[in-house]
């Protein structure tokens, strides 16, 4: 059995937080971009945005946007997202901010999952899959 050669391009930008472990901000395989989960970490200061779930969600989405842009894509290219949240009672506020980044008619598929904890104990993390 021959090993298949998988083509992938690593996407990294200084306009989003640097990875805090053995992973990359995104990987482009063919026309599909897999974006790692983004937390509300300010890439300029390295500080967490805390205390307001709407601001935390916006920072996470802005980090996603920076990575999409680095891959020459926009939110229109996003076909799937996953939102991990610490408290499902915050869902409506998160959803309000999240929705402002998409055209409702062409919004991606999505799941939202409540979890016990997230990296750096943040309240929200959002990942995405996009296609050129």
Automatic annotation (TrEMBL):
Superkingdom to which the source organism belongs: Bacteria
One Gene Ontology cellular component: cytosol
Signal peptide: none
Gene3D superfamilies the UniProt entry points to: RutC-like (3.30.1330.40)
Pfam family, one: Ribonuc_L-PSP
GO molecular function, one term: deaminase activity
Stated family: Belongs to the RutC family.
Classification via NCBIfam families: Rid family detoxifying hydrolase
Name the UniProt record assigns to this protein: 2-iminobutanoate/2-iminopropanoate deaminase
Organism: Kriegella aquimaris
């Amino acid at each position: 059995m021959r090993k298949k050669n998988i083509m992938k391009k690593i996407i990294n930008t200084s306009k989003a937080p640097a990875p805090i472990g053995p992973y990359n901000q995104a990987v482009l395989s063919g026309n599909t971009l897999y974006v790692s989960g983004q937390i509300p970490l300010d890439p300029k200061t390295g500080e967490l945005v805390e205390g307001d779930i709407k601001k935390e969600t916006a920072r996470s989405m802005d980090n996603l946007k920076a990575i999409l842009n680095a891959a020459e894509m926009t939110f229109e290219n996003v076909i799937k997202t996953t939102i991990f949240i610490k408290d499902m009672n915050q869902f409506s506020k998160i959803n309000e901010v999240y929705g402002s980044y998409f055209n409702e008619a062409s919004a991606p598929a999505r799941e939202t999952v409540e979890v016990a904890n997230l990296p750096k104990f943040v309240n929200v993390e959002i990942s995405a899959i996009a296609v050129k």
